[in-house]
Write a structure and sequence with these properties.
Helices cover 39% and strands 21% of the residues. With 134 residues, it is an alpha/beta fold. Helix 1 (15-26) links the parallel strand 1 and strand 2 (30-36). The N and C termini lie far apart (52 Å). The mean pLDDT is 96. The structure holds [cytidine-5'-phosphate] glycerylphosphoric acid ester. The site of [cytidine-5'-phosphate] glycerylphosphoric acid ester has 17 residues, from strand 1, helix 1 and strand 4.
């Protein structure tokens, strides 16, 4: 059983997220998502449209996702890798070579997958805002 772990805010779930989750699941048998809590989003400087519970319920409905756990801090990743016996940590390429993930290489594989171009939660929010203004 190869266990895969990834992290994110996953706000306004879109096909870029789904592409990441699908490819992450293809790397193993069981996919865990560390979902940023609303408090952690504040630390990340992000304001999600949907609250944690809503984002969690939406992710749990995605066929590739087996478990959603809260991401409360930057520092919890190594504990998560150990607690859930993770074999592979996967992130989109915007995180490539980030020290926030590279240190995990001593404990598990770390894989960066190409981001899906042309879509992001912030773009969606901007475009929806423009539509509302018109
Ligand atoms: N992603 C992607 N393509 C996009 C948008 C996002 O592949 N067009 C990927 C990101 O690279 C990330 C995941 O989808 O791996 C979730 O994206 P976000 O919710 O923006 O995650 P982020 O805010 O980067 O949180 O501790 C790590 C952080 O929690 C990551």
């Amino acid at each position: 059983m190869i266990r895969v772990l990834t992290y994110g805010t996953y706000d306004l779930l879109h096909y870029g997220h789904i592409n990441l989750l699908r490819r992450a699941k293809e790397l193993g048998d069981y996919l865990i998502v560390g979902l940023s809590t609303d408090a952690f989003n504040e630390i990340k400087g992000k304001t999600a449209f949907h609250d944690y519970e809503t984002r969690k319920r939406m992710l749990e409905a995605v066929r590739y996702v087996d478990l959603v756990i809260p991401e409360d801090t930057w520092e919890q990743k190594l504990d998560d890798v150990k607690t859930y016996q993770v074999d592979v940590v996967v992130m989109g390429s915007d995180w490539k070579d980030s020290p926030r993930f590279e240190y995990l290489r001593d404990y598990c594989k770390v894989v960066y997958l190409d981001r899906t171009p042309g879509i992001s939660s912030s773009d969606i929010k901007d475009k929806l805002h423009l539509v509302k203004e018109e």
